Structures are given as structure tokens and as C-alpha cells.
Predict the structure.
Amino acid sequence: MDIFIDQFFNIDIMRKSLPLLFKGLWMTLQLCSAVILLGLIGGLFVALGNMSERRWLRWISIGYTDLFRALPPLVLLIFIYAGLPFAGINISPFAAVVIAFLLNNSSYYAEVYRAGLISVAKGQWEAAESTGLSPAQTLIHVVLPQAVRNVLPDLLSNTVEVVKLTSLASVISLSELLYNAGMARSVTYNASPLVLAALFYLVLLWPLVRLVSHFQRRLAA
Amino acid sequence: MANRPMLEIVSLEKRFGPNTILKKIDLKVTEGELVFVIGPSGSGKSTMLRCCNRLEEPTSGDIIVDGRNIMAGTRRDLDRMRLQIGMVFQGFHLYPHMSVLKNVTLAQRKALKRSKTEADARAMDMLEQVGMAHKADAYPGELSGGQQQRVAIARSLALDPKVMLFDEPTSALDPELVGSVLKVMKDLKSKGMTMVVVSHEMGFARETADRVIFMDGGVVVEQGTPDEIFGAPKAERTRAFLSRVSG
């Protein structure tokens, strides 16, 4: 029992690794902000392309969502970070992670938006446009607020996935939360920093997961 | 100016694939006139109405509102011209995430660029006119169908349209709520609004319409005053339809 506590819940080691872990957490938060923000914006445009009346635009966006949902994000990440340099394209680890996960995640966001946009009755478009609103104004003021409300749990779920996904960045030695915890583990020969990192993820994500359930129940009611 | 044409439909044609829904329709509606359109389902009456503001894109033909052809020009021109053509739908289509007041001010603010004060004042006037001012802060989900439809009418009226199109405005309402909507439409007519109404409310047509149009198979079969159409229909198809709907 003592070994268990000493190996996983060693308070002393946890305290010592705290600064390093906070540094990693900060990096994780930066990654998440970039991927989530750009993903939410990019996903919307991809979804709109998906529903466009122009066939070529539809095809491009369907190809995009199919490709990047089918490709494993880790394969994408390693290709961008370690593959592209062979073509003379060098990308910083941070940018590589953002690009790889953005491609992956905007595809998922796009699918969620699409479901939301479809869920808004066609009559809403017609009513708004019959009052002289442009298609963009109709989208922004009438359709999108309803669409987002209808798929809020799915948008949030996807956001939770993004946060978890960023831990893969440790593979290319980007010093985010998991990578720094691994560093602390190898320096101290103790697993407590990993447990602490897991707690950080939990604190970050548990409220979000709760929120998803809350919205799901509210929508079902 | 009693005979000024407010809405002209000129050889309007609408095809869906191999099916011709509207076959070279011509119709002239003068200022202040109420034209009532009847016909069996699938006759093309709703499609004709929806072509008048290009919610349905005509295959060919012209739609002229107060002298201006809405088939010409850019998308922005169309948005601007739609402000002059109010439309009321069978399903109301109020915005469920906005209060009644916001429903009526949205297009005023965004399309007409009115100030908030001006739009709010105008909205309250219109809600007053349709008897819904007391519900300005309510949400559409809290209203009955008849109340929602009256708000929808106010939403259109707030933009000062020159023509109002009604697409079966009472068909989705419980019978006891129909009267309140028809009353608002009657008021509107008495104030001189030019109106085209697709509906099955024959009693309303007899009382209020200047002209009744019977459509079938994508053409105007017959038109005349309510007395002529309901009292002495000439065409066999009109007679058959009227005897069916009056049971």
C-alpha cells in the first residue's frame, strides 16, 4: 500500500512537478483555444459549402469532411510535422499540431453544424428572406442561432474531444500537459506527475461533460 | 389612381422537371384591390403566389411590382424589392428564438436600417393594429396559432409593403381562431392595402374580395366578382370545384 501511494500519489513529487505541469497546461490551453476557435469558424464554412447549391463547392466540402474524418489525426500530425520537411516545408511543432487537429476537427464540427442547419425548418429561411433580409443576414440572425441551439450538446462533445486530442501532441515533443508530465515522470522515476496531469484533464473536462448531459436533457424535455 | 396596377404577373411559367405547374399566367392587381385565388390542391395557386416574391424561381415571365420588374436586377435589388411585397405563410414561421417585438423589428433594423427607437415604435403600432401589442414581450411558443399569424402579419406590415400576399393564412388554425385573423385581413383591406389571398375561406371571399380567380391545372380558368364566381360560375371545372368544397 505504501508503495502504491509513494508511486502514484507522492505529494512531495507532485508539488515539485507542479511548475512544469502548469507550463504544460498553459500550452494545452493555447492549443485548445486555437483549434477550437478556428475549428468552429472553419467548420461552419465547410458546412455551408456542403449545403451549397453549387455542385463543385458541395463536392469539395464533402471530400474535405470525408477525408479528414477518415484519416487518423495522429497520422495527419506526423505527416505534417515529419513528412512535409521532405518537401522542404518546415513547420513549427505548435503550428503542425494546430493544422493537423484543425483539419480533423473542423470536419467533425462541419458535420454537427450541418445537422443543425438541416434541423431548422425551411420556412424560417423563406420568412426571413421574404422580409428583405439577405441570405447572410438570414443565416446570422435567424437560422444559425436556432441551429446552434439544436446541436449544442454535439458541439460541446466535439470540443471535449479536441481537448483530449491535444495530448497526442506529446508524440512530436510539444511541451503540452501530457508531455511535461512524462518529462517529470522520467526525471523523478515516479508516476505521480502523470496522475496529477490526469487530474488536470479531469478538472478541465468534467464540467464540460456535465454540461453536455445538462443540454441533452434540456433538449429532450 | 384607383386603377394603378400594383402587381402584374406577365406570362408566368413554372416548370419542375417535366411538369409544367404554371402555364403562361397573366394577372393584373390594381391598387387597393383584393384578389382571392381558389382552386384544387395542385392547381398551382400557391406556386403562383410564391413566384410573386421569387421564393419560387419562375421558369420564365415577369413579375412587376408598382412598375418595377423584380425579375430584373441583382440579388440585392431583389432583397430591396421584397420589402415592398409582404408575405404571410400557412405555417406563420415566426422566429422562435426571438420575442414578438424582435420578430417585428428584425427586418426593419437589418433590411430597412431603421433605428431601434423607430423600429420599436413602428412595431408597437403594427402589433396594436393586429391586437397583439399586449404580447410584445412573449415568445412565439407561448402564443396560439391565431396570435402567431397576427404577429406574422404585423411583421410584414411593419416594412410598409405595397402588396401583401397571403398563402393559406388560416389553413393551419383551429376553427375558433380563424375569425381573428380574417378580421385583421378585413381591416387591412379597408385601409386600402393591395392583397392577393390564396385561401379556402369562401365566406371571407364573398364578403371582402373584389375579384375571385379560379385556377386549375396551372391556368386561370375563370375570374370575376365573388357573385359571378360563386353565384353563376361559367366553366364546368369551376362548378365542379365549388360544389365539392361547399359539400
Summary: The radius of gyration of chain B is 18 Å. Chain B has a mean pLDDT of 94. The longest strand of chain B covers residues 5-16.
